[in-house]
Each structure stands twice: as structure tokens, then as C-alpha cells.
Amino acid sequence: MQVIVLATQKGGSGKSTIARSIAAELTRRGRVALLDIDPQGSLTKWWQRRETEDLQLITGLTRADQISKAVETLRGQGFDWLIIDTPGARDEATRIALRSADLVLVPVHPSQDDLDAVGPTVAEIRDAGANFIFVLSRTTRARIVDETGRLLAAHGRVAPAIVGARVAHGEAATRGLTAAEAGNAAAADEVRELVNYVLEVMG
Ligand SMILES: Nc1ncnc2c1ncn2[C@@H]1O[C@H](COP(=O)(O)OP(=O)(O)OP(=O)(O)O)[C@@H](O)[C@H]1O
Ligand SMILES: [Mg+2]
């Protein structure tokens, strides 16, 4: 089982949206489990609205020891991938999740506020000894994407696949779906490309 963790100390950068999108895409390729360690529970609420029972969810765990135990239990259950959604804050639970990660995805919305959060986020991930990639998230203009990508490249690897800003993400989420599942072809292309890249990096 490969563990993919969504993490960044900047709130609202797209962690939960990307967690859902890649989870749904990965169910087309194997068995996927979700672990929501964000007390806000965005991923959990989405999962509860979802009608298809294709994703196993573990939620409501906040203590570090509970989280590492849950990951170990899932390892014995034949899942191909586990996706962990974390809160946008530095805490012990997130540190445990980072330590279990095969790959951490760090969504970065191209804005100064998100860029300012990159240093502390990267330090926390490095402390945990995890591999990570930046994923440009909620992007609009190509020029700003290029510029942000260049700045980020000084700190780590930047996924060539980006997640564009699309209203379809929020709309689909109200029905427990992803934008791709709701029929948004551009979002489907983006997530397929992102998942291909993520799998390639994890090897
Ligand atoms: N690619 C996108 N296009 C349009 N809207 C998006 C996109 N990604 C996220 N959003 C919207 O931005 C908001 C924040 O996204 P999301 O909840 O995924 O971020 P987060 O990093 O999980 O936030 P938090 O730190 O609060 O957990 C949500 O309203 C979501 O619908
Ligand atoms: Mg979230």
C-alpha cells in the first residue's frame, strides 16, 4: 500500500479537493482507502454525500497513536493506496501522517500568501523525512503559473500537472462527486495527468 498525504500549512489551498479527485481517479486503477485527520472533516462530509461505496473511509481520529495504528491496520487489508487529508496546521497528527507518507502532495495556489507558507511546510515535511512534490492548485493565468512554478522549483519538485480553478470542483462536491466524475472533461484530463505523475514519482 502506498500512502499519499495532502499537506500544507496554508488553509484553503486545495488539499481536500485534490484528495478527493485523486482518490476517485485511483479507484479506477485499484483499491483506495481514505483517512481524514482534519477535525473540520471536509473529506468526511463529501464521502457521506457520495452514493457509490467505492472508497473506504477512516475518520474521527485525532490522536497520533490512533492514526499510526489505523495506517498499520489498513496496510494489512489489501489496499493499493491510502490517501490522507490533513488540517492546514502544524500538529502531532499531521507529523505522524507525514512520517507514513510515500509521497506528500503540497498544493500551492499561486498567491503570495501560499508562497509564504511554503518554507514552514517544507521544513515540517523534511523533518518527517518524507518525499514531496508541489502541485499548483486553483490556477487561473498561465503566466502566473509559470512564475510560481519557477519560484517553487527552488524548494522542491513541481508536478508538471496542474489543477486549474474550475467551479465544477465545488459543484460536484455538493453531490459527493469529483469534477471529473460530474463530466468535466478538462478536470478529468488534469487529474489523470496528476495521478500518472504521482504514480511515476512513487515508482
Ligand atoms: N481547483 C479548484 N477550482 C475551484 N475551486 C477550488 C479548487 N480547489 C479548491 N477549490 C475551492 O476552494 C476552497 C478550498 O478548497 P479545499 O477545501 O480543497 O482546500 P483545503 O486546503 O482542503 O482547505 P483547508 O485547509 O480548510 O482544509 C473550497 O471551497 C473549494 O471548493
Ligand atoms: Mg481541507
TrEMBL record:
Pfam families: MipZ (PF09140)
Key words, A-Z: Plasmid
Keyword Metal-binding: no
Gene3D superfamilies: P-loop containing nucleotide triphosphate hydrolases
SUPFAM superfamilies noted in UniProt: P-loop containing nucleoside triphosphate hydrolases (SSF52540)
CDD domains in the record: ParAB_family
PANTHER family associated with the record: COBQ_COBB_MIND_PARA NUCLEOTIDE BINDING DOMAIN-CONTAINING PROTEIN, P-LOOP CONTAINING NUCLEOSIDE TRIPHOSPHATE HYDROLASE
Protein name per Swiss-Prot or TrEMBL: Partitioning protein A
Protein species of origin: Paracoccus marcusii
